[in-house]
Amino acid sequence: MASRIASSRRPRYLTESERDRVEEFINDIHYSARYSDDHYEYRHVMLPKAMLKAIPKDYFDPDTGCLKILHEDEWRGLGITQSLGWQHYETHVPEPHILLFKREKDFQ
Predict the structure, then answer these.
(1) Contact predicate 93/74, CB 8 Å
(2) How many Cβ atoms sit within 10 Å of the Cβ of residue 35?
(3) Which of 16, 65, 81, 107 has its CA 20 to 30 A from that of 88?
(4) Beta-carbon neighbour count of residue 8 at 10 Å?
């Protein structure tokens, strides 16, 4: 699993043409049910595999081939929609189209 802190870099926003390329996949994004431990609520988001080819190359980690840890503005720009408080914290290397999110369990 790849885990890097998104806050160590500035968000990179999609251009209009990049946004147009990912737009066709938005309705096929799948959101898991929420699950939790004592501190956090979790969910995973599965992007359509074909969508990865439409995402700009600089959104990916060159070492793993997976998406970098994305800022909220970046993952929302890809069409991922969730309520407030969610943080992209990890990418599943064997399945690079799966993004892992968490938020504090008592988030209001």
Answers:
(1) no
(2) 10
(3) 16
(4) 7
Looking at residue 78, what is its pLDDT?
96
Is residue 98 a contact partner of residue 45, using CB atoms and an 8 Å limit? yes
User: Do the beta carbons of residue 70 and residue 88 sit within 8 Å?
Assistant: yes
Of 72, 64, 89, 87, nearest to 12 (Cα)?
72
Nearest to 59 by CA among 42, 71, 43, 45: 71
Distance, C-alpha 97 to centroid of its chain: 9
pLDDT in tens, the chain (108 residues): 444 555 567 899 999 999 999 999 999 999 999 999 999 999 999 999 999 999 999 999 999 889 999 999 999 999 999 999 999 999 888 899 999 999 999 887
Reduced to 3 states (helix: H, G, I; strand: E, B; else coil), residue 26 is helix
3-state secondary structure of 45: strand
Q: How much is the pLDDT for 3?
A: 47
**Sequence-separated (6 or more) residues with CB below 8 Å from residue 15:** none
